[in-house]
Amino acid sequence: MGAFLLGKWSEKKIKINSFTFIYIRYMEKNRFWRWPLVCAVALSALTGMEAAPLGKNPVEVQSATFKNPVVWADVPDPDVIRVGDYFYMVSTTMHLMPGAPVMRSKDLVNWETVSYLFDELHETSKYDMEGGTVYGRGQWATSIRYHDGKFYALFSPNDVPYRSFIYTTDDPAKGWTLHSRMKHFHDCSLFFDDDGRAYAFYGTGQVTELEPDLSGVKEGGLNITLPVRDEEEKGLLEGSRMLKHDGKYYLLMISWPNGGKRRQLCYRADKIDGPYEKKVILCDNFAGFPYVGQGTIVDDAEGNWYGVIFQDRGGVGRVLTLSPCRWIDGWPMLGDENGRVPEVMEVPVKGGPVIPLVVSDEFDGDKLKMEWQWNHNPVDEAWTLKEHKGFLRLKTNKIVQNLYEARNTLTQRMEGPECSGRIGLDVKGMKDGDRAGFAAFNGHSGILTVEKDGKDLFLVMTEEVVSLTDKEKKVTGVERKECTRVKLPRTKNVYLRIDADFRLKRDIAVFYYSLDGEEWTKIGSDFKMRFDFRKLFMGTKFGIFNYATKTGGGYVDVDYFRYEKVEK
User: Fold this and answer.
1) d(CA 159, CA 162)
2) Which of 83, 309, 362, 484 gives a 20 to 30 Å CA spacing to 263?
């Protein structure tokens, strides 16, 4: 992993030639770093190398090709549309808030989070971790569409009261407004036909007509179940995505046939109510991981088509693959000429910037960066960027005994093939019984915890597995394995780091700590990350936390989160 120089930085702009400017960042408090960094970065610029400020998000020029997976991070249940020069994508984030991220791209390769459909949900008290949780539930499988000058997004939380939400906007980058509520549609695809009629395709071949203004289900409208099951398809089919092309209707779904592997299906018809015929359009265990399946197809401005389909990849979650979509005999066949997801592929639209999906944050602004999400609804009065300028202050609130019941855990995705995240903590505000730290957070978590016990500070690395009830998702227990405990000296600052390796058959997180932000010491065991749909049903996230086990009133100040993705 590349090394970071940790601390607060200043920045200067230096002109290299008539066309090129570079930015030099240096530690204000440790000015002996200034000139080595200036020289190193200037030399890099002069020799034509890309130079990025340490601990900052690099700005790179896009190459002509990319490697699949196009997004090696947790982006499940994708739906993608194109409006003008932009592609828009929505995904599932369940219990994370704000929820239902909306991402934008000009090339189908680099995606920027521009908004969320909602900041919080309050369907039940479980979104506030009262009476249970919504781990693995909450917002699922959003559908996004553009119709008559407006964007629409529909999702149905997989939890009581089992009703759907429809949001709308003129511009996804400017936020969304709740439009209507109606019945629950599992894995729904919203569809507007050429005649203005609107439909929801959902479940295993179910179709329900909606009012044209999406105010509710149309009384007396189409309400049928398509005969998508046959001798092969006797189990669950899901992940509906409906579109129309050259006058025909195409319904994409995934299946697990008897004795077979997960695959992407397409059903085709001349009329919306059928009859439909079936074809397998993709069946591929790309790169040795489980079979690719569930997503959609989309065209670019030049009439080229592409498939955006996710793949389960263990601890990192469900990643995105991008494939050519070739129309053959009226069928959208996915993959290369052999029907496989290509390892390397040309970028559909050339010349754009590389946009990071996971970002560093110095916490020196007035708002958290768009990429952060809280675990469940946050307690707004228990966090602030204002009380200690340049730091995120996390205050304790509810008294709990484990991370899974704690409020205000802040998360970002991890990425493959390898990545590294690190934080700086000011712990002087901790009280007896407080627990603060950094986690590879999931149903199976590796956790670095600074524990305040009396006047003593300990750093503890643990492996923890949560148990949840089936119905309410209440935390009934946490199996906790303490791997290492280190007594810390009287100190104000502690630095924590997690390196993650998601290469095939790896899924390993390694933990480190430092007292000066420069010299790192490995702590604990290598932790095996896992994806478990019975628990949190998500890829492993970086998690920054602070909670109280005895009394409230304590706090920690998070100096920064610095992130690096390692390509190999």
Assistant:
1) 6
2) 83
pTM of the model: 0.89
| Residues forming beta bridges with residue 295, ordered by sequence position | 309
**Minimum mean pLDDT range among 252-261, 289-298, 397-406, 499-508:** 252-261
- Classified as helix, coil or strand, 40 is helix
User: Is 80 exceeded by the pLDDT of residue 279?
Assistant: yes
Residue 564, token pair as written in the block: 């690096």
Q: Which of 153, 165, 185, 155 is nearest to 88 (CA)?
A: 153
Give the residue among 384, 379, 371 at the shortest CA–CA distance from 406.
379
How far from 91 is each of 130, 243, 537, CA to CA, in Å?
A: 26, 18, 14
Helix, strand, coil percentages for the chain (3-state, nearest 5): 5, 45, 45
Q: What dotted CATH number matches 373-566?
A: 2.60.120.200
CATH superfamily, region 78-297: Glycosyl hydrolase domain; family 43 (2.115.10.20)
4: helix, strand or coil? coil
Length of the chain: 568
Q: Quick one: what percent of the chain has pLDDT higher than 70?
A: 89
Check whether the bond before 275 is cis (ω within 30° of 0): yes
Nearest CA to 443 among 95, 186, 125?
95
Structure tokens at 339: 């029907």
